[in-house]
């Protein structure tokens, strides 16, 4: 072990100040023992360069393992997110198809009802049920019957438009919720990364 001061010079200094050679050597050897004991205590808490490099390599390997795990987790989570997004798209397409089928069905029902109503009005007009006192209906009565039919048609069309708007708003809400959910999950992964 190296000492960072000259022990012989210290012995001479002590001799010059009134100590004997034997006393000076004992004092210097006691100081050397104290310093060695202190250095041993300090060295127990210290790490050598080799130990430090080994610890650094261990930490770097742990970091590399964590990075690999994060990449695997990210890929699996993004694939799960993609599959969930595809599932939502399929559900949205099914709902859209159901809505279109329902609209077609309502349109067909309305057309059928309108045709039946027109036929009924024509039969009433042809049989003269609008004017009980005369055999033929007047032009005003025919206009009144057509106006009532037009009102019914307008009412049915308005109901159909209202229903279409309701389904459209429901689809938009569902789509917006799906998009915001996907964005929230993606931002969560981005923040974790």
TrEMBL record:
Chief place where the protein resides: mitochondrion
Pfam families: CCDC90-like
One of the record's GO cellular component terms: mitochondrial inner membrane
Domain of life of the source: Eukaryota
Subcellular location: Mitochondrion membrane
Keywords, ordered alphabetically: Coiled coil, Membrane, Mitochondrion, Transmembrane, Transmembrane helix
InterPro entries, alphabetized: CCDC90-like
GO biological process: calcium import into the mitochondrion; positive regulation of mitochondrial calcium ion concentration
Keyword Transmembrane helix: yes
Family indicated by similarity: Belongs to the CCDC90 family.
Record's protein name: MCUR1 regulator
